[in-house]
Amino acid sequence: MDHSGHGMNMDLPPFTLGRGLQFSADPFFLIGCVLGIGLYLYAVLRLRRRGDDWPVGRIVFFVVGVLSIALVMCTKLNDYGMVMFSVHMVQHMVISMLSPILLLLGAPVTLALRALPVAGRGRTGPRELLLKLLHSRYMRIITHPAFTIPIFIASLYGLYFTPLFDFLMGSKTGHIAMMVHFLAVGLVFFWPIMGVDPGPHRPGYVMRMLELFAGMPFHAFFGIALMMATTPMVGTYQHPPASLGIDALSDQGWAGGIAWAFSEIPSVLVLIALVFQWYRSEQRTAKRSDRRADRDGDQELQAYNAYLASLQARGQ
User: Fold this and answer.
1) How far is it, in rounded angstroms, from Cα 128 to Cα 186?
2) N or C: the chain end with fewer CB closer than 10 Å?
3) Between vectors from CA 19 to CA 18 and to CA 25, what angle results, nearest 5°?
4) Which residue(s) pair with 75 in the sheet?
């Protein structure tokens, strides 16, 4: 019996982690993941051929980020996600909250700007187009918290609590579009917060932390709403195949618990990254101050001491 709306037989055996991790590639995401890793490594190779370095840690983050997308979209987790709300929620949380963080820590935009050749005078090449996009009004809008936080929240409440989710799940194209949307929303939400790649919206570290925590409670509330519901809330998962041996309401409770748990995990990861970036920024600032002091004989300190002396003289 077809439960997916994709023309696929979804009478799957009861879910186990081993069955879920079996290879079952979605061609769209398989090609996208292979291209993503291939282009990234090619860009790193271009840098190294001309004698420039690129941190190994960034390579690892980006590759793991792409593999995390492949994990949920190119295995049977994707098949089970069509008929089990809990498995779908794992896909959603990974592709919207974990994968974007890892991809952004790989600094793909910075890598592209360094690897792409500069076009000749008066000419426009890929690098110039990328710079134009980064400085465009469109990019300023979609990376501003007035846009990113509402769209981040709407991707939960506006999708699952309206008929839109069932409509998208009714076709393969709709399902792919929904997953791409989750990834895109995660990228634009975390991009200004992570602050690794250049972008039009780059607030200070305290504001980044506030932006991070502004969206996270809504994930927790969403998860709690699913856990406390007394009836199935999403039509797609109201009647799971008998072969799975699951209860729709119980599975929805698991989905809510997963959404609630994932509201905490990425927050901690991003917070650690922000604190580390803040520390390194302060270290660089201190080194620049030391070098300036060495060059000018620490005139700033002498001026400050003279100011204190003048205050003391006035007070006598």
Assistant:
1) 26
2) C
3) 115
4) 23
